[in-house]
Amino acid sequence: MNSIEKIDICVLTYNSELTISHALRFLLNQTFPKNMIQYVIVDGGSGDRTIEIVKNVLNGTDHKIIEANGTNIPQARNVCIEEAIKSNAQKLIFIDSDTILLGKNLIEMLIGLSERFGDSIIHLSGRSVYFKDKNALDSFLESLKEKEVNSEIKILKSYKIGMGSTLITKNIFERIKFREDLDFKEDFYYSFEAMKRGFNSLRVIGTEEYVLDVNLLKNASSDIYWRMTFKKYLKASKKKALIRYLDSLKEDDLRFSISEFLRVFLRFSLNTLFLFFLLLLPISYFASIKLFYLLLSADIINLFAFPLYKKMKGYPFLKGIVNRIKFMLFSFLVFIWTPYALREIRKFSKSR
Fold it and tell me: Where, by residue number, does the polypeptide cross the bilayer (predicted)?
């Protein structure tokens, strides 16, 4: 490293008592000088012991706890950005409250890569590990030991940038904020916006052994897509449609892939078709009894297959039907915005 600059490391929390102490423990064991780090915790209104645990673990460090009750994820990330600008941090690193940095030199690696590539978003790829109950999760976390990163890495140009273990340089976070109307995939959209403005968006492959996303198996209360209201799920549909179609861009060379575009288009077109089948059902009864039974059969399969599958995983069946209808409505909106998404993605691909 040519020089050591002030950085902010920001962790978003919300009822994170199961994992936050371990996430912070491994964060504090990083080899990067602690006197050059401000730890920023943005809490969305936890009702458990999260804040108490954070205060105990970060005692004696340069840290700030910001209580931002009721914020969604992009709003909380923008609070981090505001704090980084205020503190004159040259780099901002996001670490999720359930992300474990086993590699003790990962922060140094991120800083080194940012010096090598200049103004960039740089994401360390990890792997998800799920546990059936709290005891299994606790036992696993207690057994973990930090280690030196010694594997070969590969750098890909990518929009597929999550924010669980990600660095953003100052020139980017000063200019680009997270879209607060996006309740999911706001990180992908942020990276795409950065690339459109000529900045690097890079995904590091080869760090999966050293970056772990640990949590309990998802259920109806923890699955954000399952919990989300119709209003939240369907708002900002134009931008969400663009995000869905970003799969048309190949990683690294960022070329447009017509086959990938058609794959996404087919998925949302079929769900739109099933929505129209549902709407046509009352009319078909008076038009043709054969058509009525055909549409009824298609609607039964479409509406009940997914909820039955989720019920086997512990999700409520009736809520599953509601979520199926919600996704069909969302698919219709994605279908409507397909020309816009195609135009934006092809324009971006040609400019690279």
Answer: 264-285, 291-309, 321-342
3-class state of residue 34 by DSSP: helix
Instruction: Specify whether the backbone of 71 is left (phi greater than 0), alpha (psi in -120 to 50) or beta.
Output: beta
Question: CA 37, 155, 85, 55 torsion: positive or negative?
Answer: negative
CB 93 within 8 A of CB 83: no
Question: In sequence order, what are the residues at sequence separation of 6 or more whose Cβ sits closer than 8 angstroms to the Cβ of residue 31?
Answer: 104, 105, 107, 108
Question: Is residue 284 classed as helix, strand or coil in its secondary structure?
Answer: helix
SS3 204: strand
pTM: 0.90
Contact 147, 180 (CB under 8 A): no
Enumerate the CATH 3.90.550.10 domain ranges in the chain, comma separated.
7-217
Helical pair 289-311 and 258-287, crossing angle rounded to 10 deg: 130
pLDDT tens for each residue of 301-349: 988 998 999 888 888 999 999 999 999 999 999 999 999 999 999 999 8
Selection from 322, 349, 146, 339 nearest residue 251 by Cα: 349
For residue 141, pLDDT beyond 60: yes
